[in-house]
Design brief:
Distance between the termini: 50 Å
Strand content: 15-25%
CATH class of the largest domain: Alpha Beta
Strand order of the largest sheet: 1-21-20-19-18-15-10-13-14
Number of helices: 15
Bound molecules: cytidine-5'-triphosphate
CATH architecture of the largest domain: 3-Layer(aba) Sandwich
Helix content: 25-40%
CATH topology of the largest domain: Rossmann fold
Largest sheet: 9 strands, mixed
Amino acid sequence: MSASDSIPLRRYRDPLAGLPVALGVSGSIAAYKALSLASALTQAGALVDTLLTPAATRLVQPLAFQALTHRKVTHALWDSASEMAMDHVAVAHRICAFVIAPATADLLARLALGLADDAVTTTALATVAPLLVAPAMEPQMWAHPATQAHVAVLEARGATFIGPRPGRMASGLEGLGRMAEPVEVIDALRLRLGRSGPLAGRHVVVGSGPTREPIDPVRFLSNASSGHMGLALCRALLHAGARVSLVTGPVALPPPMGAEVVAVETAQQMCGAILDLAPAADALLMAAAVADYRPLTVSGHKIKKSEGDSILPLTRTPDILASLDRHLAGRPGPRPYRVGFAAETGDLEAYARDKLQRKGLDLVVANRVPESFGMGRHQAILVGAHDAEPIAAESKDAMAQAIVERVIVALNDRQSPPAP
Ligand code: CTP
């Protein structure tokens, strides 16, 4: 057994784990997507009570939801076997969130009016839990002023709308009216529930992805960073309630819902964006793989090949964290809590401590490579000014949560943010 095996493995804890949520389903053909949603919510650890309108039961079977969620399903207010017959507000009182997906135009109208004539609308009226709505209907119905007025009423009462999205309807028409995909609904739910988390009122900047240093109009120097770590950090921060600015180089992965994205290409551009945002932020998490060198000159035309070797003169790019440290020096007021990342094959703690001092950081996440590349067990040491905490995590998400926990503790030790 190696020493690192004795470090407890951090597992990703989904913010939905153990949370009671209700899933309301109304009579749109998109109700089939509610089955995937019920399954995904249950897999995320949520305790899902499904409520169906009478129209929904004509399209999807209550038994299917029961089989997926392992919980009773309510579809009739007046069914003596239903929990609602004994206590018609039981579900409303125990849930942390109410997700209605799909929501038809008819259901939006009844919600806006405060009607309570089925299990879904009765629960919506009786709960104080946040309401999230994923509409699905024909584009003309969505665009109708009556529907838009109901949406405005519900939004003014605090409901969060997810979609509808553009695309092909069941009718064959193209337009705005498709229900958002289940993964998007779940992201919105995690974000909504995080709003009152420990980082509520805090602003955190995340640097992520690679940079691209142009050689000519069609070539550049870059690296293989996928941006996975930066995005995992964004998600963990958003789920803890932070406002997140994501400064990212070019990546294939979509940014997490709720992050404010600043897209950059070069190290110089990333430096400008970070110096712009970070000084006023509460924290900066710099997970970007910034190119250390760029071509000394950028050719205005595509460079033609010639016989023999070619030499490309390079020059250093700005060190962004060190530039920020210099920028902050002498400025009054609190400084953002700054986290840097380092990939090392050995002497993790010693190299990390050197970076901590050179770049004026509060924490360095020193990853052991190549072990921490790709999937599987991730190992790192979180090196602060006075301590070094070894971490083993089952995934990048679990590692990101562990890092964000450190940020939460550090910011809690500082002054509370002003009330929003
Ligand atoms: N970084 C930066 N500006 C750069 C290069 C890196 O702000 N021009 C940041 C990275 O985002 C990361 C940390 O500095 O948070 C990594 O420091 P770096 O000195 O580049 O470490 P290594 O990549 O491990 O490189 P080396 O071993 O050569 O020091």
